[in-house]
TrEMBL record:
This is Gamma-glutamylcyclotransferase AIG2-like domain-containing protein. InterPro entries: AIG2-like, AIG2-like_dom, GGCT-like_sf. Belongs to the gamma-glutamylcyclotransferase family. SUPFAM superfamilies: Gamma-glutamyl cyclotransferase-like. Gene3D superfamilies: Gamma-glutamyl cyclotransferase-like. Residues 37-168 form the Gamma-glutamylcyclotransferase AIG2-like domain. Pfam families: GGACT.
Amino acid sequence: MEDKPWYPEDYRQALLNTLTEEKLTELLEKQNCAPRFVYGVLMLPTVLKYIIEDQASDITECMTRAYISGYKLYQISPRSPPVVIRTSNPHDTVQGMVVFGLDVNQRNLIYDFEGGLMNLVDVRVQIRLKDSSLLSHDIRSGRTVDAGMFAWLDSKEGLIPVESTAWSLDGFLKGSFYENIAQSQRRVMLDGSRRI
């Protein structure tokens, strides 16, 4: 996944967020907050916060880069967000973000958004952790986490394979749908700051 200078700041923060083992343990121990792996528009914190109806929290602190194996990205049309399909090749991978700390209501809102054409499946997500015991060094290790993800379970006939392991956000970020969500979020934040 790319980190371009013109990408939204909250997305760039999420890309750079690397959890420590302690923080991961804390997030995984939260009751009824199963992680979700996202690989399309929900990788963008602005969109995710809009969908889960939580404009106030800094969700980037609960997001980190991740990938899954045995899946491949496809699109319904050249301009559509991606879907993932399970493959028989364990070397096929999909890059995205894993989101921790979502409560039942927030996960249900994601289900309402993603459901319909896709089904919720269990996946094993690979993430990188930062070793907090060595403050002067940036040492990272890998970790596998169980998460839920929405996958396309219908035929892949007619779908367009994505040539990359990560969906390009560029076209979506330049579109009116994203801009309308970003404007809505700015209005909510301004309204909230005026009440203080």
